[in-house]
């Protein structure tokens, strides 16, 4: 099967706005699923990479790793998908499949490094992987997820990154009823973190730099709201929380959040600002606190999260945009002016 042209929006360098880009996906191989992309969420990681804030960006770059679409075709050996199914692709599209972490359903920690959905090379070592700001994608079925058609597909798209990235560390920290949990940064990840922590039964506090987000935090199910710029309130919450999920995109000091952790408290870090953070060892040893990083989730856990969301009716709060609005959307995301995830409607590229 020969792949027709794929339409997309790409970054050609770190400075210029994204603009139209046409390219070819690989032919549908025996184990591949070809997906007509319906919706794709806009993650802050897209922006970090488009602007080369982490270094090493590869251009042209078609970002997008919160992909939901309809299966168009499947290869001869595909067992779990058929044409017409609703399917998703998240942050990874491949991994070595044989290392201890891959064999242990933790492909995101593949010893050789997972293959990202974009801004990396596929495992042939030469094809640039391109993401979901595009009309279609071809992915090995092992890295494709089943999506329930019970939920609104536009609001499901952000679950593929923002959802799993917050679900996985909160599960790892065994968040449950009776625990005090704080979510730092009410953005795309943060608002999903609130929804999950609330659904796991915890008493949830949003810690934010934006006073205007208090009402939303409560609407999302948080019981409390703490303004991180209010020194007095921060002082009052010293040694208070069992788990703090840090989903902040900008450079910031970790110590002021560490200080809020109770005995054996855990600071779960998912935000990826470019600079090394400030950190006081004195704050770390007090209360035997720990800092734990977490990267997305494995394929099995991502499917579990999607099924959990379908069962509990959990989706992202979104603003749907046409692809032509992407550069404005980025500027608004930097200002925290989105409630709480932009989702691209790819029909805007198919006209
Ligand atoms: P986002 O929607 O832009 O949200 C980031 C939030 O950070 C903002 O809404 C804001 O919340 C807070 N913030 C911004 N500047 C701040 C500052 N100077 N100090 C404190 N808080 C600040 O971003 P996102 O898409 O949720 O992504 C968040 C981060 O997670 C990004 O760095 C992204 O690359 C990373 N990420 C990591 C993984 C992973 O696997 N670990 C996966 C996906 C994304 P308030 O207004 O409430 O303060
Ligand atoms: Zn992401
Ligand atoms: Zn591996």
Helix content: 10-25%
Compute the gyration radius: what is it? 20 Å
Order of helices and strands: EEEHEEEHEEEHHEHEHEHEHEHEHEHEH
Q: Which small-molecule species are bound to the chains here?
A: NADP nicotinamide-adenine-dinucleotide phosphate, zinc ion
Q: Count helical runs.
A: 12
Overall structural class, as computed from helix and strand content, comes to alpha/beta
How far apart, in Å, are the first and last alpha carbons? 24 Å
What overall geometry do the principal axes of the alpha carbons give? globular
Average pLDDT level: 97
Count the E strands: 17
Describe this structure in words.
- With 351 residues, the chain is of the alpha/beta class.
- 25% of the residues lie in helices and 26% in strands.
- The strands form 4 sheets. Strands 3, 4, 5, 8, 9, 16 and 17 form a 7-stranded mixed β-sheet that branches.
- Helix 4 (162-172) packs across helix 5 and helix 4 packs across helix 10 (299-312).
- The radius of gyration is 20 Å and the shape is globular.
- It starts with a strand and ends with a helix.
- The model has no long low-confidence stretch (mean pLDDT 97).
Question: What keyword list fits this structure?
Answer:
alpha/beta; 25% helix; 26% strand; six-stranded parallel beta sheet; 17 strands; seven-stranded mixed beta sheet; binds NADP nicotinamide-adenine-dinucleotide phosphate; 351 residues
Secondary structure elements and their pairing?
Elements: E1 5-10, E2 19-24, E3 32-41, H1 44-50, E4 67-74, E5 86-89, E6 92-94, H2 100-103, E7 115-116, E8 136-140, E9 145-146, H3 153-156, H4 162-172, E10 180-184, H5 188-199, E11 203-208, H6 214-219, E12 224-227, H7 231-236, E13 241-246, H8 255-258, E14 261-269, H9 281-285, E15 290-293, H10 299-312, E16 318-322, H11 326-334, E17 341-345, H12 347-350
Parallel strand pairs: 10-11, 10-13, 11-12, 13-14, 14-15, 16-17
Antiparallel strand pairs: 1-2, 3-4, 3-8, 3-17, 4-5, 5-9, 6-7
Helix pairs in contact: 4-5, 4-10
One zinc ion is lined by residues 43, 45, 65, 91, 161.
């Amino acid at each position: 099967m020969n792949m027709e042209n794929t339409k997309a929006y790409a970054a050609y360098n770190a400075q210029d706005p994204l603009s139209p880009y046409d390219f070819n996906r690989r032919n549908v191989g025996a184990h591949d699923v070809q997906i007509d992309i319906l919706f794709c969420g806009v993650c802050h990681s897209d922006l970090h990479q488009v602007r080369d804030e982490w270094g090493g960006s590869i251009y042209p770059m078609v970002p997008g790793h919160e992909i939901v679409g309809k299966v168009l075709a499947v290869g001869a050996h595909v067992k779990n998908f058929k044409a017409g199914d609703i399917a998703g692709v998240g942050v990874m599209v491949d991994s070595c499949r044989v290392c201890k972490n891959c064999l242990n359903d933790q492909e995101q920690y593949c010893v050789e490094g997972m293959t990202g959905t974009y801004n990396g090379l596929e495992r042939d070592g030469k094809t640039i992987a391109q993401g979901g700001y595009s009309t279609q994608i071809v992915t090995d079925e092992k890295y494709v997820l089943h999506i329930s058609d019970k939920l609104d597909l536009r609001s499901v798209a952000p679950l593929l990154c923002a959802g799993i990235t917050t679900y996985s560390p909160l599960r790892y920290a065994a968040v449950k009823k009776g625990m005090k949990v704080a979510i730092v940064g009410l953005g795309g990840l943060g608002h999903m973190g609130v929804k999950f922590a609330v659904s796991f039964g915890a008493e949830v506090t949003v810690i934010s730099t934006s006073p205007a987000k208090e009402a939303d935090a409560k609407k999302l199910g948080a019981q409390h709201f703490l303004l991180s710029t209010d020194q007095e309130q921060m002082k009052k919450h010293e040694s208070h929380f069992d788990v703090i999920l840090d989903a902040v995109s900008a450079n910031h000091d970790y110590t002021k959040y560490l200080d809020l952790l109770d005995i054996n408290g855990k600071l779960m870090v998912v935000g990826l600002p470019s600079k090394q953070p400030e950190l006081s060892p004195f704050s770390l040893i007090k209360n035997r606190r720990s800092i734990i990083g977490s990267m997305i989730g494995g394929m099995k856990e991502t499917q579990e999260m999607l099924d959990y969301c379908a069962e509990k009716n959990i989706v992202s709060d979104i603003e749907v945009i046409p692809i032509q609005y992407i550069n404005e959307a980025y500027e608004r995301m930097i200002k925290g002016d989105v409630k709480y995830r932009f989702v691209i409607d790819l029909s805007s590229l198919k006209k």
